[in-house]
Task: structure prediction
Amino acid sequence: MKQKNGSLSTSSGRVRDVGTERPNSTPRRDVTRNRGRILAAARRVYRENGATAPNDVIIAAAQVGLSTFYRHFPTRSDLHRALMDELVTAATEIAERADNTEDPWTAFSDVFRHGCVLDDADLALFHNLAAGTPELAAHAAELTARIVTPSLNRAQSAGLLPATLDTDTVVDLMTAAHTAPTAERRDIRASVMLAGLRHPRPV
Result:
């Protein structure tokens, strides 16, 4: 077997171009799967035991090796940051759909009503992770801003919301609406808050 110009020539005379061979995709699938298992395990462990639970408990729950765990997350901060990203995935998708909604009030209302999608345990976990370090607190604020601020700014630019309304206040109101005990009560709270926030007409 001889190699010439990036090709392999076999004894049968057939030529195989090694430069165009597709790499084995199994390692990539394994990497993605292991990362997902670690994050899912961390979410379960932290919900049950708090965000100070040791890494070895997460490693055991994820059923991965020590080297695999630290290859994905060399530090606790890396793990906590990635888990925060994971927790807001659904809310981020809602915000992205709102960005493509033509009417600014509908976009803001959708984010306000549905952007706080975490249950009480996950919401508490997100806040606990954010409280871990100043860097994680800043990351939490950045994630929240990505979800809320675009639709808020659009509604304000259209004269539908007070210019003094800021992202933190909107998040506080969303959280207050979300803590109602039933879906019906959450919807009522959100409707009342939205009605109170909206200007009667563009200004």
Q: What stands out?
A: The chain has ten helices and three strands.
